[in-house]
Structures are given as C-alpha cells and as structure tokens.
Design brief:
The chain is mostly helical. The protein contains five helices and no strands.
C-alpha cells in the first residue's frame, strides 16, 4: 500500500505540493516547508486523502487494501500493530 501511495505521489508531485500549500499544511509560518517534512503517518494520510478524491483511484486503493489483507481476516493485535507503525516511522524518519 505504501509503495502504491508513494508511487502515485512521485508521479503527481506538483499536485501533492500544491494541495499541501492550498490547505495550509505546508508553507505557513512555523509549519513544515514541504510535505516531506511531515511525519510518516501524516504524510501517508495526506496522500491517501488526495488519492481517494478520485473515484477510479479510490477503487484502486480499495482493491490494493483488499488484496493485502490476510486470508483469515484476523486483525493484528495492538502490540503487533504498534510495532508495524514504529517500523514504518523509522523508515520514513518520523
């Protein structure tokens, strides 16, 4: 999922940066200069929000989520989920 979101963001970087400025997420006094300065969780949530605005892209993201779910559909326990979030935060430098 992360590769899908970041891949889209790279292809549409002008849109990502423009949206961040328009929404006041970046380029404000005391705020981050770029979306790359956001922590990983906020960066990914921002990207997904933009992607989901378009019906076709929303369907694609939903399909990726569906394919990535475990077959038995058992949710991760809280500690496993927390470890995964920490791992992704380290990767993205958050």
């Amino acid at each position: 999922m992360i590769q899908t979101l970041v891949g889209w963001a790279v292809d549409s970087w002008h849109e990502v940066e423009a949206r961040a400025v328009m929404l006041g997420l970046t380029a404000r006094v005391g705020g981050p200069d770029s979306v790359l300065d956001l922590d990983a969780r906020h960066f990914l949530a921002f990207l997904e929000g933009i992607v989901r605005e378009d019906e076709g892209r929303r369907k694609t993201i939903d399909e990726v989520y569906e394919k990535s779910r475990p077959v038995d559909k058992t949710p991760l326990d809280r500690s496993a989920r927390h470890r995964e979030i920490e791992r992704l935060t380290r990767i993205f430098g958050g």
